[in-house]
Specification:
This protein is α+β, with helices and mostly antiparallel strands. The protein has ten helices and 13 strands. It has two domains: 118 residues, Phosphorylase Kinase, domain 1 (2-Layer Sandwich), CATH 3.30.200; 209 residues, Transferase(Phosphotransferase), domain 1, CATH 1.10.510. Helices cover 32% and strands 20% of the residues.
């Protein structure tokens, strides 16, 4: 990289020594993100493993972009927006970097004008990849993931969000999904965590997150660029931008409880609440505003599923707060 600004100063090293430590990397692999980002596992010259996250520019192979035109002006604007989005994600990640349950941010680098977030590499398995590996219960007409396991995972996520409420400002992830929840496996294997029903969770991909400091104009979403959630799990306010009062709605903690309840619904039924992937002609926003979550008639409705669906409401006032949902889960399980 051409430059590197550390997120913190190591008392045992000068700022210059810390910067040099993160200037040269050996790349192991890369995994493109749907949001035109790329995550690379890399090692520095001290063989320390890190993750490098950066935007994909046209020169990287992005040939079809949101902008249909490929004029120089359009390409330049695209890259400017991608740069701003990366900087916003860096600021949001930095706000929670010191908290358990989030990746530790090491700093921000730059290579040929492209910003690169340097953070801890999280060793583990995403919840999306772990679904087939979690304990299932055969109910005859259907199979679901063990409700006790589902509740344990949900409570682990909520503990992280509750801990984030200790910050001076208000933090909302705004894009919780099975792909953005990682079960860490550095200290204990997935099977060991399943056996103990105690999960070491890490929340990643803070590209849509917001952090607003109390009694301060500082916000990590200061560029006015709209970010959307994953349609299967996001509440309706994260799927539109032309509703009255939408800016205020997009900073509610109930965005995260709605998404987590949707994830619980998936784990308990092996179907997303609205099965939007098969409804390509329907507006996800209107579906979530007008309909109730779908449940296969063959799926027994346990108490945990009823609780999850109670949190999947279009109106924020009808949803659980983070603390309320945690208390309800503790009461049930």
């Amino acid at each position: 990289m051409d430059s590197f600004t550390p997120a913190f100063v190591d008392p045992n090293c000068t700022k210059e020594e810390t910067s040099r430590r993160f200037l040269t990397f050996f790349l192991e692999n890369k995994a493109p993100y749907p949001s035109s980002m790329v995550l690379r596992k890399a090692y520095n010259t001290l063989n320390e493993c890190v993750a490098l996250k950066s935007p994909l520019f046209y020169e990287d192979g992005i040939k079809e972009m949101e902008y249909k035109e490929t004029s120089q002006e359009a390409l330049q604007r695209y890259e400017e927006v991608q740069t701003l989005l990366t900087l916003e994600e860096f600021r949001s990640s930095l706000a929670v970097s010191h908290l358990k349950g989030f990746p530790r941010v090491l700093g921000l680098g730059n290579a040929k004008g492209k910003p690169i977030i340097v953070r801890e590499y999280v060793e583990g398995v995403t919840l999306a990849a772990a679904i087939d590996l979690l304990p299932h219960v055969d109910l005859g007409a259907c199979i679901e993931i063990d409700p006790i396991t589902v509740a344990a995972i949900a409570k682990a996520v909520l503990k992280i969000l509750l801990n984030a409420q200790s910050l001076e400002g208000a933090f909302v992830h705004r894009d919780l999904s099975p792909r953005n929840i990682i079960i860490r496996t550095e200290r204990a294997s997935l099977q060991q965590q399943v056996d103990s029903c105690c999960f070491d969770i890490c929340l990643v991909d803070l590209g849509s997150a917001s952090y607003i400091e109390t009694d301060s104009p500082f916000t990590t979403t200061q560029n006015g660029i709209w970010r959307y959630g994953t349609i299967e799990y996001a509440p309706p306010e994260m799927l539109t931008r032309d509703v009255e009062g939408i800016k205020e709605l997009r900073h509610s903690e109930t965005i995260d409880t709605y998404a987590l309840c949707s994830i619980m619904h998936l784990l308990l039924t092996l179907e997303t609440p609205y099965q939007l992937a098969s409804r390509i002609n329907d507006s996800p926003y209107l579906v979530k505003m007008k309909e109730e979550p779908k449940i296969d008639p063959n799926v027994p409705v346990c108490k945990l599923l009823k609780l999850a669906d109670q949190g999947i409401k279009a109106n924020q006032e009808e949803r659980f707060s983070v603390r309320e949902l945690y208390k309800e889960l503790c009461r049930l399980v």
